[in-house]
Amino acid sequence: MRVLLTGATGFVGAYTLRALVRGGEEVTLLLREGSDLWRIRELAKPEMIVRGDLRDFEKAREEIAARKPEVVIHSAWAGVGNKLRNDPSQIDDNLMPTIHFFRACAEIGVKHFVGIGSQAEYGPLNRRISERDATEPTTLYGATKLATCALLKQLAEQMGVRFAWLRIFSTYGPMEDSGWLIPYLIRTLLKGERPSLTACEQKWDYLYGADAGEAIYRTAVMPGAKGVFNLGSGQVYTLRRIVETIRDMIDPKLPLGIGEAPYRPDQVMHLEADITRLKQATGWAPKTSIEEGLRESVRWWEAQQERTA
User: Fold this and answer.
1) N or C terminus of the chain with fewer C-beta within 10 Å?
2) Which pTM does this prediction carry?
């Protein structure tokens, strides 16, 4: 199958590319000039790459059209980090560029479009969440994702494109951005330092990156997978369990600053995905246990530390 993938240099996009390559698919990557390829350097062959920007897709349109993609997996999104979650650039850099991109893809013959959404579209429900739950986002990031999903759904129906939208919950694993919680914990503990933490009572759904990539791939190649799907592990663990598991893997004697940091005013205490619908539509299920995934994460960060020593 001929697949066009955006956002391949991101954490989830890089694992999606790995799944596509394992599956033997013919992949085209739409990458901006100057993109950092460190996550995909061994996979991103020059002949796979088309240089372009979603904000000015017309410049790449002819080259993309010549490759005749059947499926688009749209993983690119600007401003994923916490600092930009309420920045107006969420709208300017994401919503309209994605709409124009979708229309261009449909016009050149794409028949299947998989977009990557977010649990932030639901807002802080603090319980197990299904696709039937109300969507009440509390950030511009979540609201823009939700608006993009609604507009793409309508356009897909008008233009005869199968549309799937995967609302990702929390992901983790090797190659994760260093500023997120699990890398922060690992890096701090590897230095023998004490991480400053909340009371760690939160219940969190964490999905291993490779499992997320496989789920996205399976959704892309399953013609019956249509509509909105939650993408998570379907299980929750207390943050305290995750923190202590990581600490024990590195050195059980290391101190933890549990309770030293206050909860945020908007702290979500229970984030859990009901993934029944996705499993039924694709046959996918997570394979990696939380212990195995955390161990691989620790090993990866240990290797990074050795390279920079």
Assistant:
1) C
2) 0.97
Residue 46 burial by Cβ neighbours in a 10 Å radius (0-12, 13-18, 19+): exposed
**CB 228, CB 276: distance < 8 Å:** no
The 10s digit of each residue's pLDDT in 19-78 is: 999 999 999 999 999 999 999 999 999 999 999 999 899 899 999 999 999 999 999 999
Please spell the DSSP secondary structure of 234-300, one letter per residue: S--EEHHHHHHHHHHHH-TTS--BTTSSPPPTT--SEEEE--HHHHHHH-------HHHHHHHHHHH
**Closest Cα partner for 98 from 134, 50, 150?**
150
Confidence of residue 269 (pLDDT cuts 50, 70, 90): very high
| Distance between CA atoms of residues 220 and 293, nearest Å | 24
Task: Look up residue 119 and give its amino acid.
Answer: Q
Strands 203-204 and 49-51: unpaired
Q: Can you read off the two tokens belonging to residue 171?
A: 């992901």
Closest by Cα among 104, 111, 19, 24 to 70: 111
DSSP state of 112: E
Residues 196, 202 contacting (CB under 8 angstroms): no
List the structure tokens of 45: 């062959």
307 — pLDDT class (breaks 50, 70, 90): confident
Distance between CA atoms of residues 305 and 228, nearest Å: 39
Q: Identify the burial level of 179 via C-beta atoms within 10 angstroms of its C-beta, where 0-12 means exposed, 13-18 middle and 19 or more buried.
A: exposed
Within the chain, where are the H helices? 11-22, 58-66, 89-90, 96-107, 140-159, 181-190, 209-221, 239-250, 276-282, 290-308
Residues making up the chain, counted from first to last: 309
